[in-house]
Design brief:
Blueprint lengths: L1 E6 L5 H12 L5 E6 L10 H9 L13 H6 L2 E4 L2 H10 L7 E3 H6 L21 H21 L2
Parallel strand pairs: 1-2, 1-3, 3-4
Family: Belongs to the low molecular weight phosphotyrosine protein phosphatase family.
InterPro entries: LMW_PTPase (IPR050438), Ptyr_pPase (IPR023485), Ptyr_pPase_sf (IPR036196), Tyr_phospatase_low_mol_wt (IPR017867)
Keywords: Hydrolase, Protein phosphatase
């Protein structure tokens, strides 16, 4: 299965999600990340790099924009927000069965979370490293659920 994570600029949340899933699956899952408004070739944010390094998670990242090729590659597209999901579906309406927010996808079988107050992963962009640590913790819990779902 090819999993594509999508956020806005592909420098914070989606690269962290990609790195975490690669880390937890020991590289056995095909994972990439892109951004709705990403430019080609930007590094991950310094705070993302720092938090992942503190946690022993390897990150080798260069930002990429969402393209038809990346959509064609993906079997499952997981977005960080509902806004990202809607933006993708407006461009690629035929992929409606493959696009979910990360939170809704990992929680759809979880009866303890029948309604999520927000289907969005918090955006740390521009914040201090402590905000990135909070987003890391949020993503780590979600990625562990994702891995269990497909293991």
């Amino acid at each position: 299965m090819n999993i594509l994570f999508v956020c806005t600029g592909n420098t914070c949340r989606s690269p962290m999600a990609e790195a975490l899933l690669k880390h937890f699956s020991d590289g056995t899952m095909n994972v990439r990340s892109v951004g709705i408004f990403a430019s080609e070739g930007s590094p991950a944010s310094q705070q993302s790099i720092q938090v992942l390094k503190e946690e022993g998670v390897e990150l080798n990242h260069s930002s990429k924009p969402l393209t038809k090729d990346s959509m064609d590659w993906a079997d499952l597209i997981l977005t960080m927000t509902e806004g990202h999901k809607h933006a993708i579906l407006s461009q690629f309406p035929t992929r409606k069965d493959d696009v979910f927010t990360l939170k809704e996808h990992v929680s759809e079988d979880d009866q303890s979370e029948p309604s999520l107050s927000s289907k969005d992963v918090s955006d740390p962009f521009g914040g201090p490293v402590d905000i990135y640590r909070q987003t890391f913790d949020e993503l780590q819990a979600l990625i562990r659920k994702l891995q269990k779902k497909y293991s």
